[in-house]
Specification:
single chain; 103 residues; mainly beta; Rieske Iron-sulfur Protein; four-stranded antiparallel β-sheet; 0% helix; metal-binding; MocE family 2Fe-2S type ferredoxin; Rieske_2Fe-2S_sf; Rieske_2Fe-2S; MocE_2FeS
């Protein structure tokens, strides 16, 4: 079922950082850009299913902590191998200091 799910408080994520959100057997990554915008992607690297919330976030890029694959977290696009499959991205909204993602 698709709908808006409360993922975390906006203050739980520092600017230019990521947090993990698990829901209904799935893992998501919630990002806060340097411009205080929020984004959400699948939480696991498409290469070897490592949690992206443990990766390095710089500007609009997240780097997988295992093999250094990189993705644009705003679009999900692969930026660097060994990953070759883009991340799925999800709509995000902020309401009342809470971050919601549509899944």
């Amino acid at each position: 079922m698709t709908g808006w799910v409360n993922a975390c408080a906006a203050d739980d994520i520092e600017a230019e950082d990521v947090t993990r959100f698990d829901h209904d057997g799935r893992t998501f990554a919630i990002f806060r850009s340097p411009d205080d915008e929020y984004f959400a992607t699948d939480g696991l690297c498409t290469h070897e299913k490592v949690h992206l919330a443990d990766g390095l976030v710089m500007e609009d890029t997240v780097e997988c902590p295992k093999h250094n694959a990189a993705f644009n977290y705003k679009t999900g696009q692969v930026l660097r191998a060994p990953a070759c499959i883009n991340l799925r991205v999800y709509p995000v909204k902020e309401e009342g200091g809470q971050i919601f993602i549509e899944i």
